[in-house]
Amino acid sequence: MSTRLSLPAARDAPAARYEQVKHHIRQIIDSGARQAGERLPSELDLVATLGVSRMTVNRALRELTDEGLVTRISGVGTFVAQTKPQSTLLMIAHIGDEIRSRGHEYRYDTVLSQRETASVMVSNALGLAPGASVFHVICVHRENGLPVQLEDRYVNPAIAPAFLQQDFAATRPSEYLFEIVPAHDVEHVVDAGLPTRAEADLLEIRPEEPCLTLMRRTWTSGVAVTFARFVHPGSRYRLGCRFTPDLSQRQG
Predict the structure, then answer these.
(1) Phi then psi for 197, rounded to 5 degrees?
(2) Separation in Å, CA 95 to CA 27, 144, 145
(3) Which of 62, 128, 147, 235: disulfide with 132, CB 3.0–4.6 Å?
(4) Prediction pTM value
């Protein structure tokens, strides 16, 4: 004889029911019964256990996925999401150092390294004349084998003329620039949106998965050095910082 658990009745059902399903799944994760990467009960199991409709369970899982608590793989199942690493916004951080500091495996692949004619957007970002020549590299950074950052970087050849001659299998582009060119000014802008098809393929995510994009420009002695976009899958990464404010300045 099977045992079936039922969620308490609610006057505003079915809306309250899917929230209760979410609460039930959070309890499973918070209790440690399921660790990051482990499979959660299937939709059918939850329907049978909790006595709710599959539509209710599906909505609960969909919202938990949007919140980054679980991941769903079509035809495979639902899993506890990996804890998202956090990167700082107030300094230039090397993602490899961040990943290794967590005791995780880090590696990256350089998928493009070439000289090309800058688009209008890139030439404007670097303060170059229209049609100027720039260096362009694209790298995919992985944590425990999973892509967590796509680096799409343009470099001003006048500032780093030997950039493309470097062995990027041994030295990351960001490390090389950090070593040879002091960054006197840094601009960070964060945006949220959907990846392009090419970006989704490189990050091994669905095209409809939201991403966080950090756009960085650096200058040395007033001359632009690099313009880079760092695209992060929203379910795998977060951006944040902790800092001590200057109390001598007005607070808003």
Answers:
(1) -60, -40
(2) 32, 13, 14
(3) 128
(4) 0.63
pLDDT > 90 in the chain, percent: 50
Token pair 């990467």 is found at 37
Residue 181, C-beta contacts closer than 8 angstroms, at least 6 positions apart: 159, 160, 218, 220, 225
Task: Please report the domains of the chain, with CATH numbers, ordered by start residue.
Answer: 15-80 (1.10.10.10), 86-239 (3.40.1410.10)
Alpha-carbon distances, residue 108 vs 168, 177, 212, 235 (angstroms): 10, 17, 19, 19
Is there a contact between 135 and 110 (Cβ–Cβ < 8 Å)? no
DSSP β-bridge partners for residue 135: 115, 155
Dist. CA 157–CA 163, nearest whole Å: 8
Q: CA-CA distance, 122 to 118, in Å (whole number)? A: 6
Instruction: Note the pLDDT tens digit of each residue in 19-78.
Output: 889 989 989 988 888 888 788 999 999 999 999 999 999 999 988 887 778 888 877 889
Tokens standing for residue 194:
């959907």
